[in-house]
Structure formats: structure tokens, C-alpha cells
TrEMBL record, chains A, B:
It comes from Candidatus Synechococcus calcipolaris G9. Keywords: Transferase. Its EC number is 2.5.1.17. Pfam families: Co_AT_N, CobA_CobO_BtuR. Transmembrane segments: none annotated. InterPro entries: CblAdoTrfase_CobA, Co_AT_N_dom, P-loop_NTPase. One of its GO terms (molecular function) is corrinoid adenosyltransferase activity. Residues 3-22 form the Cob(I)alamin adenosyltransferase N-terminal domain. The lineage of its organism: Bacteria, Bacillati, Cyanobacteriota, Cyanophyceae, Synechococcales. NCBIfam families: cobA, PRK05986.1. This is Cob(I)yrinic acid a,c-diamide adenosyltransferase. The gene is cobO.
Length: 200, 200
């Protein structure tokens, strides 16, 4: 256990390291961000970034690849920014809901075309492609097509791609990749249902 | 590769499994949620939950244990809910900023007292204890004290505890635990600085 004085000296040194690090990190760029893994929080963390971007006054586009409608609470909360935020739910539900692969593929392709449209508009500083990784995993979209589209994005635009099953090519091409890992989940272990305010 | 008809049959079966699962999950309860790990997204995913809870009309309290001020963009975005949301930045910065352990400890204790106050008010349906895990890791707060406080929470209140270093006792006591794992980070690898709209 350090004394208070030793603690102070250690923290002074750490402060120097931090200052040095910050000085070395000067690049500004729009990021390709991937939220993957089996845990919770992939879409939720993207929503947090949407909130921050809206707070900065940026325009934001959200395109949902699987869901066919916006969750009412998210819709209510984000209705405060009608001039900054656009939202498109381009899916019709999970694969076990639609039970129709050709229709799922057509929906994924239409969603991707919509995404490309926003990627061509530099005033959209954040584009959230929600659950697009699932469409990639199911081969409803090809990684080549998505990577080619991401290469067209304006320099300052951030793009977030969420969902299980991000292909390795996407991880390679991304700047910031976080895996949400399930450690404990009350659904499975306690029979708890999805909770308002947390999951929807 | 399944034919479209085989796909349809497989998805019909999966739908039955899903329906069964949902039927088994009937419990409603406020959750103790932990976001841990070295990756990004711990606080950000908590912010997404704050947004959902606000959309449901719930009262929300945010208590920051490390930071001494609210990020301007988050503050601007969340200023739309003056009647539902309270925010307290109870820290004075990272340990290498303050360089004063006794003051850090006093701040952590004051933040925890504030948390207990909201935990006693059932109309606060979501309480975010941001970076509290760091205070636990540094032994500024004891796990026993925090767990005892969490046990007093009203049945329907959700509590989110974020930050690296969640102690095992907290993970054991929590309902929903997600580890954010760093796969790739542009700070380190590309010299990119923290980006507006994403990290703050």
C-alpha cells in the first residue's frame, strides 16, 4: 500500500504519460465503428453515440436492417431532434418472424441502398447501421459490397455497424471495434423478461 | 445451403422455440446491471439505457464518480428532460489529475451518499453510477458497503454500475453483466484523438 505521498508522486508520473499520449494523438477522422459479440449493449452503446452526436448539433441517420419498427420509447425520446435525426426501419423482423429468405434479402438490399444514400451526404456526421452485421452473417449482403460502400464515406463521417456476426473483413477495415461479451444475463438465468427502460 | 423452403421450415421451428422461451420469461424486476471491461461503450451503453428510460417517462438519476463536470454535448442533449433527469458530477477527475488520494476518497464517499439518497426514492426508476467500479477497484469504496446499498433499492429500480475493475462480489450480485472487450482502438493504433459525437 502506497503512502499518500507515494500515491501523489506516482500519479504525477502517470499524468506526464497521459499528457504525452494525448499530444501524440492529433488525428481527426470519421471512424468506422463495429459493435459485435453475444452480449447486450451493441445497439444501446450506438444509441449513446447518437445522443452525443445530436448534442453536438450533428445530423444523424439510423437505418435498422432487421427490425420493422422503431421501439416506442426510443422514438419518443429521439423525437426531440426532428431536424437532425432521420430514422428508417427497413426490416420486417427476425428471420424466425419473416420465415421468408428472399424477402429478407430484398429488405437488406433496400436498407443498404438507403445507407449508401446517406453515406453520400457529408452533412450526416453519424450513420448507424443497426444489425447490419446480422445481414452480413446471413449472406444477405456481401462484405465486399459493404466495404466498398464504406470506402465512399466522407472523411468526417462516423459509421457504426452493430450486430452479432461481423465478418473478419469488416473487423479488419474498421477503426474501433468493441466486442460486447455476455457474462451474466437475467433472461436465461432468472426467467426475467425484457425490461422497459433497459432493453426497449 | 438450405433451399428457401428448408429455410422456412427451420425458421418456423425456431419461432416455436422463441415463443416458448418468451412464455417462460415472465418476471419483471429492476435489474442491477454492470458494464465492465477495457473496451469502449460502458458509459455509452448506459447512456442508451438512460435515453430509453426517459422515453418511457421514468425519472433517472446519473451520478458520476470520477468526472467533475458533464460533457457539454451530453448535457445539451439531455437538457430536454429537466423534470425527469438529475445529474451530479461528484468527482474531480482521474486519479492522475487530482493526485490526492484522501480527496478522491472523500469525493467517492460523498458520491455514494448521494447515490443512496436516490436509491431510497422509488420514483427514480434508473440510477446510473458512472465509473463507480473504478472507485471500488481503488478501494475508495468497499464492495460490502455498495452491495448493502444495492440491497435497499426498490424492487422496480434499475441500477447501472460502470467502469473497469468491477469486483467479483459485485458481478455475483448483479443480474445483467456485460464485458466490453477492446478488439481495436484507433487511439492506440492510428494516433486518432477522441472524436466528438462518439467519445464525448
Amino acid at each position: 500500500m502506497l503512502t499518500d505521498e507515494q500515491h501523489r508522486q506516482k500519479m504525477q508520473q502517470r499524468k506526464q504519460v497521459q499528457t504525452q499520449r494525448l499530444a501524440e494523438r492529433t488525428l481527426e477522422k470519421g471512424l468506422v465503428i463495429v459493435h459485435m459479440g453475444n452480449g447486450k449493449g451493441k445497439t444501446t452503446a450506438a444509441l449513446g453515440m447518437v445522443l452525443r452526436s445530436l448534442g453536438h448539433g450533428y445530423r444523424v441517420a439510423i437505418i435498422q436492417f432487421i427490425k420493422g419498427a422503431w421501439e416506442p420509447a426510443e422514438k419518443a425520446a429521439l423525437s426531440h431532434w426532428p431536424d437532425q435525426l432521420v430514422f428508417h426501419a427497413m426490416g420486417e423482423g427476425f428471420t424466425w418472424e419473416t420465415q421468408d429468405r428472399q424477402r429478407d434479402i430484398a429488405n437488406a438490399e433496400a436498407a443498404w441502398e438507403r445507407a449508401l444514400d446517406y453515406l453520400s451526404q457529408p452533412d450526416y456526421r453519424l450513420i448507424l447501421l443497426d444489425e447490419v452485421n446480422v445481414a452480413l452473417k446471413l449472406a444477405y449482403l456481401s462484405p465486399e459490397k459493404v466495404l466498398a460502400g464504406l470506402r465512399t464515406k466522407p472523411e468526417q463521417t462516423h459509421v457504426i455497424l452493430t450486430g452479432r456476426g461481423a465478418p473478419p473483413e469488416l473487423v479488419d477495415a474498421a477503426d474501433l471495434v468493441t466486442e460486447m461479451t455476455l457474462i451474466k444475463h437475467p433472461f436465461r438465468e432468472q426467467g426475467v423478461k425484457a425490461q422497459a427502460g433497459i432493453e426497449f
